[in-house]
Amino acid sequence: GSKSLGGGAGGTGSKSLGGSLSTATTTAASAAAATTSGADGTLYDGAFAAQALGLPPPPLDRRRGWNDVILLAFAFVVTICKYAKFWYFNMLVLASLAGFFVSPFFLVFHFTIYFLDFDSGKQLVMAIQRSGMNILNTFVLAVLAIYTFAVVTFLVFKEPTQADKGDGPPCATFYQCMGAHMLTGIMGDISNLFNSDLWDTVPESVNEDGLQQARTIFVLFFFMIWNFVLSNIFVGLIASAFEAIRDDQNTITSDRLSKCLICSQDMYLFNEKIQGGFEEHILKQHNALWYVFFLHHLRATAVEDYTGAESVVRAVLDNAKTTTDKGTWLPVSKSLAVMHAAELAAAREGGPAPT
């Protein structure tokens, strides 16, 4: 009985165990075959696990060939061609060669370096960019003013008067009249069109030469509009642009020195609440470079390898519609160090921890 039981039990156990081992061996062999069958184009390393998890298969490891080298070279050339300073440097080189072999006047092109590399030149360009549309609108207004005065001259003051030392203004056609007014009007004085000195056009009495007096008032009116209104508008726009740029730079400098770039909290809060103060916070708690490295990590990491937090940040960046929306994942107005310090202070005082 014992033998039979043992045999039966042993036989059954051996059979069951053998079946399990056989099944496990078969499964392992299948997995091994699946993970090593990359040569015949079926599955390769990691593909079996990816298939079991319902993920796309990983890329096949291989050596780089000439096609990869050509693609890298093409991408490098495209990147260089899109780089504006590359073309600017080439133009400087061409200007230097032209200045050496053709004419030294080509070297004038090198003065553009002032607007790209010097702070004063950069500020001038920024001022023009900031107030560019306002300057353009004012220029259009100036052209319309000159056009209006040209129309009046062509219709009323085209003929010479007794005070003129020669012919009247060059207004045989309206095109000629408009061009002459544009050239002289830009300089702020259209009296040169009438071939007479302004002080010679004043008659001895009010009743004499009314047309000449009207023309004198006409010229003075243009002078006041151009020099007292339009010119001051141009100067005011440029000056206000410089002031706005200076205020922005001062604000940026002040924020950089007195506020955390990540959480935007004041320096005085950290100096009061945490040990080590503001310097400790921006170097070890909210180091801006760490956040830059994190963004680079997101860019360099495959999406399927993200952690939960990384996936959330990636989704925020991808779905952001504005630049402000891209920063919603940052701990603005929040700092764990300040919160922990407040909790410790509340615990020592026996009160509830702040939220």
Automatic annotation (TrEMBL):
GO terms for cellular component: membrane. GO terms for biological process: calcium ion transport. GO terms for molecular function: monoatomic ion channel activity. It is found in: Membrane. It is a multi-pass membrane protein. It comes from the Eukaryota. Keywords: Membrane, Transmembrane, Transmembrane helix. Gene3D superfamilies: 1.10.287.70. The keyword Transmembrane helix applies. Residues 71-249 form the Ion transport domain. PANTHER family: INOSITOL 1,4,5-TRISPHOSPHATE RECEPTOR-LIKE PROTEIN A, RYANODINE RECEPTOR AND IP3 RECEPTOR. This is Ion transport domain-containing protein. It comes from Volvox reticuliferus.
